[in-house]
Specification:
A hairpin with a 7-residue loop joins strand 12 and strand 13. By secondary structure, the protein is an alpha+beta fold. Helix content is about 25%, strand content about 30%. The strands form five sheets. Strands 2, 4, 5, 7, 8, 11, 15, 17 and 18 form a nine-stranded mixed beta sheet that branches. The longest helix has 18 residues.
Length: about 475
């Protein structure tokens, strides 16, 4: 994600505009329903799945006891009434013997739940849907949950990080946010440590477009309604899912055998926003030369214009950008930032939110690399400017452990990017670019931690890097300028 306040540039001026920042098991799951539990249940002890994954910053995010392989989300939204109806099918595998399990679902009313085709008991505890199947679920066995629900979707309120989730708009809706948003429009295990594949079918009134993640699957119209289909087969963290409904200028194409789907709201005059996201594949190709193969099956971007959204988010394969990024003209730096996340944050996702610098530090550094590639300024110049001009607060906030309240602080973005450059200086260019390509390749489709990145950097470079990372990620004082080790 990139908030407008993070637009610190090299050159005559610093642009620091206010923004609100929102929002391990990995598998794409089976294409067909997993086999229902058939093993004997005698002598087994079935227990309730945890109501959170135990994240250090957000302990109740996500749920324990199972690993999701695939979601099939079918929703119908009527903007005139602000009403959503949906059926979501969750294909998962039990990771312990479960008597009950939870899914995250905020605000909507559930009318029916089945597990492996049999009716299941369900109840609500705030934003938790508690499901009790007719019989216990056995560790290692697959199961299929189908949830039918409806209601008026609402965003999740967060006084510290800003609201995220489903927003009703004048011509449709936007579902977007970080660190949580998906649970406002479908039941989900809402933590990046449980990535899954997704299929979306979104039905809206004729004349509106419904955009989501991944490969477009076409549309079908009937009786005044149009159903839009999308599929993301690569493992995706739940907060990276999105739904944008409205009227858009659509540009489609193909690049390297993958579909390209760009959309700009018609509420915005044609101009710099269109020109900026039209360069998506150009920017992606450059980043591919630095980070290794592009990790997904589609390219694209969506530009929205809504006063409640003043950030860009790296929604997988199709980032969403606030119109404010393009008010001063063409802006490919923000495109580079969000596309870099496709490697760092999307393909390689967080095991825990504490390590968010792994996402934002590399995306910020990608902006500097892109600027160097386009002869705007060098990465070294960007580093030096920040080193000289950053506020004391940045140095007092360790990006490797910022705290939940400072998850999207300037330190995470800018000092995170500086940490990446400090590593480059310490190990030299050859080792540095090998490190980041190796990281993207070895962790592709999975989740990761800072400790794993440090270990890999030391392995590839052959250098001891504890002191460097301790100073740049965890220190509360301005580190000394980096030097070649």
């Amino acid at each position: 994600m990139r908030g407008t306040r993070h637009r610190l540039r090299t050159g005559a001026a610093l642009v620091v505009a206010g923004a609100v920042a929102l929002s391990g098991c990995d598998s794409t799951g089976p294409e067909t329903a997993p086999a229902p539990s058939t093993s004997p249940t005698a002598a087994r002890t079935f227990t309730a799945g945890a109501d959170g994954v135990g994240d250090t910053y957000f302990p109740t995010y996500g749920n324990g006891g199972y690993d999701v392989g695939r979601y099939t989300v079918k929703v119908r939204y009527d903007p005139a009434k602000d009403q959503l109806t949906g059926t979501t099918t969750v294909r998962a595998t039990a990771t312990t013997d479960l008597s009950t399990f939870n899914l995250d679902l905020a605000g909507l009313t559930v009318s029916a739940v089945t597990v492996d085709g049999a009716p299941a008991t369900h109840s609500r505890k705030r934003n938790e849907l508690v499901v009790k199947p007719a019989s216990g679920l056995i560790n290692g066995n697959g199961f299929v949950v189908e949830i039918t629900y409806a209601g008026k979707p609402k965003p999740l309120k967060n006084e510290t990080l800003g609201d995220g989730g489903f927003l009703h708009t004048a011509d449709g809706a936007i579902a977007l946010g970080q660190p949580e948003s998906a649970s406002t429009w479908f039941p989900v295990n809402d933590h990046p440590s449980d990535k899954a594949a997704y299929d979306f079918e979104v039905t809206v009134p004729d004349g509106l477009t419904a955009i989501s993640n991944g490969v477009p699957g076409g549309k079908v119209s009937s009786g005044g309604w149009t159903t839009w289909k999308w599929s993301e087969k690569s493992p995706m963290a739940s907060y990276l899912s999105t739904l944008v409904i409205g009227k858009f200028r659509i540009t489609t194409g193909e690049h390297k055998g993958r579909p390209v789907y760009n959309a700009v709201t018609t509420n915005l005059a044609k101009g710099s926003a269109d020109a900026s996201i039209a360069r998506t594949v150009e920017v992606a190709d450059y980043l591919e030369s630095v980070f290794g193969p592009y990790p997904f099956d589609a390219y694209g971007g969506v530009v929205v214009s809504d006063s409640r959204i003043s950030y860009a988010l790296e929604t997988q394969s199709r980032p969403v950008y606030a119109a404010s990024f393009f008010r001063q003209g063409e802006n490919t730096e923000v495109v580079a930032h969000e596309l870099a996340h496709q490697w760092f944050g999307d393909s390689v996702a967080l095991a825990k939110w504490e390590d968010i610098w792994l996402n934002e530090g590399f995306a910020t550094y990608a902006e500097w690399l892109w600027a160097e590639h386009t002869d705007a300024y060098t990465a070294k110049e960007a580093f030096n400017k920040r080193y000289a001009e950053m506020s004391a607060q940045v140095w007092q906030t360790p990006p490797g452990k910022p705290g939940a309240e400072k998850l999207f602080s300037e330190s995470v973005y800018q000092r995170g990017g500086m940490t990446v450059h400090a590593l480059r200086v310490a190990v030299g260019d050859e080792a540095f670019f090998e490190i980041i390509k190796t990281w993207a390749a070895e962790k592709r489709g999975g989740i990761a931690t800072t400790a794993e990145f440090v270990a890999l950097a030391e392995r590839v470079s052959g250098k001891k890097l504890d002191a460097l990372f301790d100073a740049w990620l965890y220190g509360t004082k301005k580190p000394a300028l980096p030097k070649r080790l």
